Amino acid sequence: MDYLSDDLALLTRVLEIYDQKYVAIYLNSISGRDWCRENINRLVNGKDKNRELTRREFDALAQLLPPPPAHHPEYDFDFIDLFAGIGGIRRAFDQQRGRCVFTSEWNEPATRTYKANHYCDPDSHTFNDDIRKITLSDQPEVSEEEAYRNINQKIPDHDVLLAGFPCQPFSIAGVSKKNALGRAHGFECKTQGTLFFDVARILKAKRPAAFLLENVKNLKSHDKGRTFRVITETLDELGYWVADMETTGSVDPKVIDAKNFIPQHRERIVLVGFRKDLNVHEGFTLRDIRQYYAKEKPRLGDILDKAVDSKYILTPKLWEYLYNYSAKHKAKGNGFGFGLVGENDITRTLSARYYKDGSEILIDCGFDHSKELHHPDNMKNRPRRLTPLECARLMGFIDNNGNTFRIPVSDTQAYKQFGNSVVVPVFTAVAKLMKDRILEAKTKQGEVAIAA
Description:
Number of helices: 19
Oligomer: single chain
């Protein structure tokens, strides 16, 4: 065995998640040796061939990487994870014995958190940053045939495509030009220049049995409804049936509120689709998600720590600003202001801007509304932000079922990441609804392959 080679491979993977200073401190806590950033850097760069990890150090370092699931290597289906963030949707499908074979996420801090928490088998999983490197959508000189060939080479076959793609308007310029020239146009024209275009190209090239797309609730009304219409028309053009498309209005099963699972009001639109030719979609509806609503939903108080670092308590100046800002807008009849919540309340939506002032979710530490803001009791009992670990619980990454979550980034990055993520139990419920259809589709595809 080449121990030095093994050391380098392990260190390289760990340093994709944690910085050299953290690793040095960690190793010194294990062995008490003279580890520092400099000698770790020299080891990684091949400049110190005399230093090796001890077996104890090696084993401890390996503990920083997520372990394979208990059922590894026995999986029920394969999926890919696009615009993955920190892997909220992936975690839901992992729990259904799915195997992730490809991940794409461009944000470096998010990939660190992702790699700290999700097992990625080096023999069957590929990690990519910019999805356009796969779809070649940023290279207009590349032909469609060449783009699809590259997708097929770079992305493994899979049964389910997962994507929480950004919401972007579609330009009509390309469509108008082709209309003027009398040329036919489809999704390649209508969606070009958006990241949904990359999703569509992958669906066309790989033809997975199913997909799950997630976005903000406002996707339905974005650009006066045109964005949503182009997306659904594209999915139909590609040969996919989309669940509950006949339902619109305020009671739409495609719009799911996380408050039925955790104490947070967070609405997201979920598009679940199946290939029409496989005919496994009959009777599927997201209305059935009700059967997975939490029987005993956790209280906000259940996810809060009893004591937190004082840095999470608002400063007197910030609390005064937020209080006066809210009062000013209330006087004008506006709803702008902070969201002060207690242990039995439902919070507002945690957003990616939470790191700025935490105003949408402030934990009440004893504020007395009958007293003036500057009363000594009120200034002593100023509200606080959630900690990153509490955010992880509020988003369902950590629960009472033994699921844990590592946060290898700064508080600022953690707040952005959780604010941009999804509530895991919501998508666990959707994954449970989908699984039987996914397995049925796999069986049908296997029968076709045998017949051929």
